[in-house]
Amino acid sequence: MKLLNKKIKKVLLIYPNFVTKTITDNITIPPLGLETIAECILNHVKVKIIDAKVRNLKVEDLVKEMNEYEPDVVGISCCFTIGIN
What are phi and psi of 49, to 5 degrees? Predict the structure, then answer.
C-alpha cells in the first residue's frame, strides 16, 4: 500500500476516550467502523486498534502508545458529533 510514494507498513486506528457529560459516557460501543477498516487492509499492512474509551486512556497514554507503535498512518474515529472536540 502506498501514500504519496511512501510505502505504508503500519496503520494505527484510534477510538478516543472522549467525555461528553451525557448519556453516551455510560455506553460502550465497539469501534465497528475501525474494525471494518482494519479487516479491509489487514492483508496489506500491519494494523493496530486502540480503544482508548474502553481502556480509559488519557491523552498522554495514547501519545505514548502511538510513539511506541510508530505508525505510518493514524486514523481517528468519532461516533458522536458531541465527541469531536
Answer: -115, 130
Q: Is 62 helix (H, G, I), strand (E, B) or coil?
A: helix
Q: Give the separation between CA 31 and CA 6, rounded to whole angstroms.
A: 28
Q: How far is CA 33 from CA 5, 21, 22, 37, in A?
A: 27, 23, 22, 6
Query: How far is residue 49's CA from residue 69's CA, in Å, rounded to a whole number?
Result: 11
Q: Nearest to residue 45, comparing CAs of 79, 73, 78, 4?
A: 73
Dump pLDDT digits (tens) for 32-66: 899 999 999 999 999 999 999 889 899 999 999 99
Q: How many CA atoms lie within 13 Å of 2's alpha carbon, on the beta-carbon side? A: 3
Cell 484510534: give the residue: 14
**How far from chain centre, in Å, is Cα 48?**
8
